[in-house]
Structures are given as C-alpha cells and as structure tokens.
From TrEMBL:
GO terms for molecular function: DNA-binding transcription activator activity, RNA polymerase II-specific; RNA polymerase II cis-regulatory region sequence-specific DNA binding; zinc ion binding. This is C2H2-type domain-containing protein. GO terms for cellular component: nucleus. Residues 11-25 have a biased composition (Basic and acidic residues). PANTHER family: IP01243P-RELATED, ZINC FINGER PROTEIN.
Length: 373
C-alpha cells in the first residue's frame, strides 16, 4: 500500500496536531446555556439540574420529615440528620461529620488554612460561605427575604432556619425524650438538660448554663446592661429578641398566624402551644399518672401535686434575684419585676384599639377589649 500524508507509519489515519488541538477545544466548550440567567454548562444533564433552581422543582423527597431536594446527593446528605450517621472522621481530633465537605472545612481548624480573602478589609476565612456572610458587613445588604413574613437576612443559612418557624419543620431529634428542634445548636443545649452538663458558669453568682448565649443574657442581670433600646418608648432590653417582641406591642404586628382559626401571635413560641388546642396534642406527659399537657410549665406545676410540694410558697430573698431599684421589692421572675416597675413609672404600653384606653398589663387589656368585639 502506498503511503500518503493522510496516514501514519502504522497505516492508520494521520492526525494533524492543529486539528487535535481544535478537537480538545471543542470538548472543553460549554455548549448548554441557561436561558434564564445565561450560565453555561458542558453537559445537558448539568443544565437540567441547574434549571430546577429557577423552576423551584424539588423531586427528591425525605420520607421522614417531608423535606424535598433538587438532587439525590443533597437528599442523601439530609437523611444522615435522621439516622445520625457521620462516616467522615477527623484523624487529628476524632470528630465526625456527615459529609466529606464538612470534614475538609473542619481540618482547616488544625491547619490554620484560610484561603478566602475579603477584598475590603483583608480578613481571611476558611470557607466561601463565611466570606460571603462577612462581605455583607461592608454593604449592610440583606439579600435573603422570607416570602411569608418579609423578614430579611444577611445570610441564606439564617433564612433557612427562619423558614422553619412557618413550616414547623424540626429535623433535629433528641434521642432521650423525642423532642425535636429546628437548629442543631438548640438540640445540643437541650441534650445538656438530660446530662446535667452546664459548662458555662457565671463568675458573679456561680450559676451554670447549658449554652453561652444564656450565660451572656444572665450576666446582664448583674451588670444592669440593656443594650437594645426601643426607638418608640426608650425602654431597654437585655436581648435583641426581647426588643423585637416588644416593638410588636407598638406596631400591633402579629406575624405568626394559626392556619385553623386565623388568630395571630407576636411570637412563634405562643403560636405552637395555641395550635395544640385544635389538635389536642399533649406532648408533655406526667411519668407518675400519665396525664398529658400542652405546655411544659403546666406539667411542672402538676408534678408537684404528687410530691406534696407547695409551688406557690413565699420565696426567700436569695431566691428572688430581681430587685426593684425604686422601692427595694424583690421578685423571682424578671417579667414580674417589669410589671411592677410600671407602678412607679406610670407606663401604659397596652392600648385598646377601639377606645384608646391604655393599661399597664396585657392581662388587664384583654378583658377590657372583650365587650368591644
């Protein structure tokens, strides 16, 4: 057979180097484009997965809690929350993780690696998500909004946790008592109730707490610090969450609405016990007689009937840590002290929407409003 330039010495077809380079370029080309945002993909199946972001399609369902996902890998990672499986272990400290990605990020604690740099201030971070969260400090941007109540968040992770207020999702289960939580941090603090662990101790009075945030709030009892101030009436609060609840007294906002009767509440903690009126759910059960209760505080009071303990006996001064600075009277609860202080200040926060009459306590306003309904 006669040799020609189109064949190599082995008798096969000769490939021009320039032609081969062109083929590689064609292989690298991203030919599948999203019509919505313009993002390009090399493979059609990658484009189809991406399109679910715009359509909101989540076809992979968790049979345990009902949460849905766009991809099977995200569902499989989620399932480990329910099973408790953590197959990826750190060789340095032995801590286990549900995903290899979380393990990889954790290892940076030991190595000190922080590859993600803020261009504004030069601060570095171990994950891209932490960098994105940080950059909002410079812009004060809150790009993640709740479609149900309109509340905005700097971080997508904070929005996802917030959404569980509306959906009622509580994926984190306590293996001891069966109680569920919307956040892992809340579950960790709760577990310490069963173990008795209180690692966060007040340097002033020695009282222990299950988490650092509760300790911080407690220390403000001793210091008198109330850094969160209401712009309407000037009242100060020890925590931002207490301030937020307080402002709804002035605005009348009740964002947490019962789907059954339409009644609104200022906080989710008030809505959840209310919903049990309709479902007759009584998750708090007395171990002695089996009687069930809708809220834990009612169970605690009931349990004292079996021990012959008198729950409403006058407490000693040392058991009444809340002091009125005006008259020196002591109280066992901060809420009782707040109500008492209004005697001296004359403050009346609760107003009737019909006649405008104001009251010091919400409990007095409610009976007043009833005839106007």
């Amino acid at each position: 057979m006669k040799w020609t330039p189109s064949q190599d010495q082995e008798g096969g077809e000769h490939v021009d180097p320039e032609s081969k380079s062109h083929c590689n370029t064609q292989m690298d080309k991203k030919s599948f484009k999203c019509d919505t945002c313009g993002k390009e993909f090399r493979y059609n199946y990658k484009l189809n997965m991406h399109l679910r972001i715009h359509t909101g399609e989540k076809q992979y369902l968790c049979n345990t809690c009902g949460k849905s996902f766009r991809e099977t890998k995200h569902l499989n990672e989620h399932l480990k929350i329910h099973t408790g499986e953590k197959p990826y272990s750190c060789e340095t400290c032995g801590r286990s993780f549900r995903t290899s990605g979380n393990l990889k990020v954790h290892k940076r604690i030991h190595t000190g690696e922080k590859p993600y740099l803020c261009k504004n201030c030069g601060k570095s971070f171990c994950t891209m998500s932490l960098l994105k969260q940080h950059t909002t400090i410079h812009t004060d941007e809150k790009p993640y909004s709740c479609k149900t109540c309109g509340k905005a968040f700097k971080y997508e992770s904070k929005l996802n946790v917030h959404l569980r207020i509306h959906t009622g999702e509580r994926p984190y289960l306590c293996n001891t008592c069966g109680k569920r939580f919307s956040q892992t941090s809340a579950l960790k603090s709760h577990v310490r109730i069963h173990t008795g662990e209180r690692p966060f101790v007040c340097n002033t009075c020695g009282k222990g707490f299950t988490d650092s945030s509760n300790l911080l709030l407690h220390t403000r009892i001793h210091t008198g610090e109330r850094p969160y101030v209401c712009k309407t009436c000037g009242k100060g609060f020890r925590s931002s969450s207490k301030l937020l609840l307080h402002t709804r007294i002035h605005t009348g906002e009740r964002p947490y609405v019962c789907n059954t009767c339409g009644k609104g509440f200022r906080s989710s903690s008030k809505l959840l016990p209310h919903m049990r009126i309709h479902t007759d759910e009584r998750p708090y059960v007395c171990n002695t007689c089996g009687k069930g209760f809708r809220i834990n505080s009612k169970l605690l009071i009931h349990m004292k009937t079996h021990t012959s303990e008198r729950p409403y006996v006058m407490k000693r001064a040392c058991e009444r840590p809340y002091l009125c600075s005006t008259c020196g009277k002591r109280f066992s609860q901060a809420s009782t002290l707040k109500n008492h202080v209004r005697i001296h200040t004359g403050e009346k926060l609760y107003s009737c929407k019909t006649c405008g009459r104001a009251f010091k306590r919400n409990s007095v306003l409610k009976p007043h409003e009833y005839p106007h309904r």
